[in-house]
Design brief:
This protein is an alpha+beta fold and about 180 residues long. It contains 7 helices and 8 strands, in the order E-E-H-H-H-H-H-E-E-E-H-E-H-E-E.
C-alpha cells in the first residue's frame, strides 16, 4: 500500500503496525523526542519511556477489532504512525490520530498526505460516514492539517489539557464522507 508524494517518484509505504515487525529503535526514538510527546497528553510517556508499556499498547491495538494502526515509511525509514481508533461500525464513525515521529519529516506536508490515505481507507474500505479528530489548540500544525483536509471545528473543551504547567483548550473536529 502506498501514497505518492507530489512531484516525487518516492511513495510512502503503509503497513499495518505489528510490534514484531515495527517495534524497534526507530519507533522507540519517537518517544524520546519531547516535541512528539507534549501534544499526546499521555503523562506516563513524559517520563523515561517503558518499552513494555508501549508493547502492551501496540498489542492491544493489534488485537482490537475497533482500532487500526499503520506504520508509514519512506525509503525504508519510519516517518510516522497513524491510527483509526474507537471504530464504531454501527454508527459509522472513528477517530483519527497521527504522529510524525521522525522530526526530519515534520512541517513538510506529510501529515496531510498520510491522513488523506487513512481517510480514504475509512470511508471507502470500512464504509464509515464520519471521522473525528481532536488536538490541543496550541498544536498549530495539527489544527491546520485538520482544516486543510476539510474537517470542521465542532467544539472546544476549555482548558482541558496540561502542557508545561499551563492548561490549553482541546479542539474537536469532524469530517463527513461526501454523498455519492
Amino acid at each position: 500500500m502506498g501514497a505518492g508524494l507530489p512531484g516525487k517518484k518516492e511513495k510512502l509505504q503503509f503497513s499495518f503496525f505489528n510490534h514484531k515487525k515495527h517495534f524497534g529503535k526507530e519507533y522507540l526514538a519517537f518517544f524520546k523526542d519531547y516535541e512528539n510527546l507534549k501534544y499526546l497528553n499521555r503523562p506516563e510517556y513524559m517520563k523515561k519511556i517503558n518499552p513494555n508499556l508501549l508493547k502492551e499498547y501496540i498489542d492491544k491495538i493489534s488485537k482490537s477489532k475497533n482500532d487500526i494502526m499503520w506504520a508509514v515509511h519512506l525509503n525504508k525509514e519510519l516517518v510516522a504512525t497513524v491510527k483509526l481508533g474507537q471504530i464504531d461500525y454501527y454508527n459509522g464513525y472513528c477517530d483519527l490520530g497521527i504522529m510524525i515521529g521522525n522530526k526530519k519529516y515534520r512541517g513538510k506536508g506529510f501529515a496531510k498526505i498520510i491522513c488523506k490515505y487513512v481517510i480514504n481507507y475509512a470511508f471507502n474500505k470500512l464504509n464509515l460516514r464520519r471521522i473525528e479528530g481532536s488536538c490541543i489548540s496550541k498544536n498549530i500544525a495539527m489544527n491546520k492539517t485538520f482544516k486543510n483536509l476539510g474537517f470542521k471545528l465542532e467544539g472546544q473543551m476549555i482548558k482541558r489539557n496540561k502542557i508545561e504547567k499551563r492548561y490549553f483548550d482541546r479542539n474537536i473536529y469532524a469530517l463527513f464522507r461526501k454523498k455519492k
